Amino acid sequence: MKEAAKNPEKWELSPPYGVKTVLLVIAVFIFLSFSARHSDIDKMFYMLGEAGGRILGLTDSSQVVSGTGRVIDSMFPLRISEETPVARIENFDRDNLPFFSRVETETIEVSRFNVQSMQLEVTEQSREILVEPVGYVLYAMKKMVETIEIALWATIFAIIISIPLAYYSASNYSPNRLTYGTSRSLVSFFRAVPELISAMFLVLAFGFGPIAGILALGIHSAGFLGKFYAEDIENADRGPQEALQAIGASKIKMLRYAVLPQVLPQYLAYSMYIMDRNVRMATVVGIVGAGGIGQELKGRYDMFDYGHVGTILLLIFITVLLLDQIASRIRARLI
Amino acid sequence: MIKFEQIEKQYPDGTIALQNIDLSIPRGEFCVLLGHSGAGKSTLLRIVNGLVAPTKGRTVVDGIELSKKTIPAARRKVSMIHQDFNLVKRASVAVNVMSGALAHVPLLLSVLGWFPAHMRRKCCELVARVDLGEKHLYRRVDSLSGGQQQRVGIARALMLNPLVVLADEPVASLDPSASHEVLSLLRSLAREHDCTVLCSLHQVDLARRFGDRIVGLEGGHIVFDLDPGKVDQKALALVYANYDDPHGQEAIEAARVENLVDTGLKKI
Asked: pLDDT value at position A1?
């Protein structure tokens, strides 16, 4: 060492990258350009440019702008009230209307085939409808609460499942290689199953409704939490663990007293991220029939009720925003 | 109390940490292991509570010969104080002190974080004994100074009334005045509880001041085993000779001067 210190002119400091790296970068570029053609990236930029031109008034037509415009036009006005024909309500009690609602009479045109004249005749009919001014918003909010509940239970189950999984897949706590390997692969498997697809099959098994959603989300997020928790256990400061090992504490006590206090803030942050994510994913898995607001969204979308769809989208947006705010406040207080 | 016979330790990478260690430490003694880093002090300490298994030789702690089966029983009599304190930083002082008795708390209670009443009382006594107050009980350990943290470490080590306290460089990360404080506290508490202390240090002055006996280690061998008063420059040279360590050189020089003064005084 001392010899070398005297001859700095003989030291070697290699350049940061060589020909190999340059060739690799070129190869990556070639691959990406092929892949871009393959995935219509050029077309995407063309369409975006066309849309930009249309907005600035440079081009006459754009598929993107007209398509988006049509959807937005049909979404507004957003659907807020709920109107139900009185005739369709069972045991309608005129003296005891639901809160804030009123009965209106409207005239509708009914076309009927007249058998005598063999012609379609349009007659005017009047019917009574029950108008609840914010009825649909309330209904959608009820569905949103259901969605949040699905996410909450999925998170609770995920945490419960992932604690033993984390214990067995932390290399320094797992009793032997078999338990380590098994739980590691189980965690990877849970994570590898996309919740939308598992929800599709769980709906077949458990029927439409929240059960399928809770299970699909719970399994997927247990995979995530198991991995995160295990990595934190492995990376926790060894000192306190050794101190407790030296006085003869068992592994579970070591985890409880030397590891848990260190990793708890991190665990809470992960769990809250998973909760946040589960709320968003719960709206998505609803689309395949796993309960909550997603199911309502899918139904309305298929019936072209874009006014309703707009209300639902706005509600999802507001909820996610609010939850994000609440989560970041809680996190700031914990850490 | 502690007896090492022909201990040898070779790590898997081939380095020989200890060789031919024969040492016997009577009950109640404050024995200091003095040596440069890498001399094998920590390894020797860790053999006593089974954190390190020797390659050869036998160790007897309070009449129990250490083996895989007897280590759990031996660990209940031996506690340890660490260089980096090894406390749980985010936990309170009280939890850290009481965790010293974890081996005696039923599993379910310990998972729930519930310590029996007599342990809570003992914890309060110990915290008071290491000169911390009631207000410190709920403080998080990382809000305390280094000296206070090591005193928490001492309280934790005394939770189970150990027969042997191992102190692995207990003052290496403390400033000189805190080092004095911590070592004199450790010494007086050990006297009170009649504990045998095996303490590794690399500061010669502290070793001479607090030890009942100083064992010098160099390259895995015991190079001297003397009363603190008899540790002179020749002995220290055995420990520090092979290193360009200014601290060691200073210590040797100080011992030489002291020796001169002593002999000068005797002549008068």
From this structure: 47
Find, among A141, A53, A133, the residue nearest to A98 by Cα.
Answer: A133
Residue B243 has what pLDDT? 62
Q: Work out the minimum CA distance from B176 to partner chain A, whole angstroms.
A: 24
- Helix then strand then coil, in percent of chain B rounded to 5, is 45, 25, 30
**Cβ contact (<8 Å) for B102 and A257?**
yes
Q: Which residues pair with A102 in a beta bridge?
A: A131
The reply to whether residue B110 touches residue A256, judged by beta carbons under 8 angstroms, is: yes
Residue B52 scores a pLDDT above 60:
yes
For B66-131, the three-class secondary structure string (H helix, E strand, C coil) is CCCCCHHHHHCCEEEECCCCCCCCCCEHHHHHHHHHHHHCCHHHHHCCCCCHHHHHHHHHHHHHCC
- Find out whether B188 and B194 touch, Cβ atoms under 8 Å: no
Angle at B30 between CA B26 and CA B32, to 5 degrees: 110
Residue keyed to tokens 């009927």: A112
Query: CB of B193 within 8 A of CB of B173?
Result: no
Closest by Cα among A233, A217, A236, A237 to A159: A217
**β partners of residue B252:** none
**For residue A77, which of A303, A314, A301 has the smallest C-alpha distance?**
A314
Question: How far apart, in whole angstroms, are the C-alpha atoms of residue B71 and residue A177?
Answer: 24
CA–CA gap between residue B155 and residue B163 (Å, rounded): 14
CA distance A156 to chain B (A): 19
Q: Which residues touch A271 (CB under 8 Å, ≥6 apart)?
A: A155, A159, A225
